[in-house]
Amino acid sequence: MVGSYDAQVRALSDAEVLLELAEEAGDEESAKEAAAAVAVIQKQLDDLEFKRMLSGELDAGGAIVQITAGAGGVDASDWAQMLMRMIIRYCERKGWKVDVVEETMAEEAGIKSATFTVAGDYAYGLLKAENGVHRLVRVSPFDGAGRRQTSFAAITVTADIDDDIEVDIKDVDLRIDTYRAGGAGGQHVNKTDSAVRITHLPTGIVVQCQNERSQHANKDKAFKLLRAKMYDYELAKREAKAAVELAARLKIEWGSQIRSYVLFPYQQVNDHRTELKTSDVDGVLDGDLDELIRTHLLQAANAKH
């Protein structure tokens, strides 16, 4: 792939020289042909770059996204819900299908946690760039004194693995609990213990599903989530990173953030991994994540090579 990439770069450089010469000579027909050649080569370069960024075994498939509120009280719960909207808006821009599996509302505002699956080409490869702790700085709408508040929430992305990938899960290692799913009240209140929580005892991995109508359907989805998380865990352990990653995911507070979103006293999003900054905070929170994601993935791909 590197040889092909270098060849395309040379071809693009040659085509640009031809385009400049044609424009200087006033040869419109040659200039049009050269411009068309440049556009084709640029497209091929973009495709090669994309494949280089997303060359992981599971990058081309779907993803499972979990969002968890961290330090910051009610502001953190509100921030977690904002992040959920941000990621879902990004998925909608990509034309991917989102299915909310579990959403636990916080007492005053926002959410304690949420889990949703994303189906679409390269959903996991792109969304994995959002893995980590996200920090928000703003004037708290929940503080009567109008003080600035810093809050944290974590995004965890795992691959939604195919059913034909084997994951060894023993029944004896599982604790399965059922409980009553929360509802909006009135006719929407769930009167049966249809929600399912599965705990894998050896690893402490917990998954839950409450959005389906039947306990059986919730259990099936919960097992699917568990298989994906177990697969991700085993991959991380194989690479001797499981302990480090687990500690980073659990510590949703100061010093652990991958990105900061500042709404006051100025407006800026800063990705601490790449130092890419943008003042378009509203756009980012509305799902315009392409530049942030692409910059991080390119940096990670270059580091590997």
How would you describe this structure to a colleague?
With 305 residues, this protein is α+β, with helices and mostly antiparallel strands. The protein folds into three domains: 2-53; 63-162 and 242-304, Alpha-Beta Plaits (2-Layer Sandwich), CATH 3.30.70; 171-238, Double Stranded RNA Binding Domain. Helices cover 43% and strands 25% of the residues. The chain is built from eight helices and eleven strands. The chain has helices at 2-25, 28-53, 73-94, 123-127, 215-238, 242-250, 281-285, 290-304, and strands at residues 63-69, 97-105, 111-119, 132-139, 148-159, 174-179, 195-200, 205-209, 257-262, 268-271, 276-278. It has an eight-stranded mixed beta sheet with strand order 2-3-1-5-4-9-10-11, sandwiched between helices. A three-stranded antiparallel beta sheet has the order 6-7-8, with helices on one face. The longest helix has 26 residues, at 28-53. The radius of gyration is 23 Å and the shape is globular.
Report a brief summary of the structure.
With 305 residues, the protein is of the alpha+beta class. It contains eight helices and eleven strands.
Descriptive tags:
3 domains; single chain; Double Stranded RNA Binding Domain; 3-stranded antiparallel β-sheet; alpha+beta; Alpha-Beta Plaits; 305 residues; 8-stranded mixed β-sheet
Topology (SSEs and partners):
Elements: H1 2-25, H2 28-53, E1 63-69, H3 73-94, E2 97-105, E3 111-119, H4 123-127, E4 132-139, E5 148-159, E6 174-179, E7 195-200, E8 205-209, H5 215-238, H6 242-250, E9 257-262, E10 268-271, E11 276-278, H7 281-285, H8 290-304
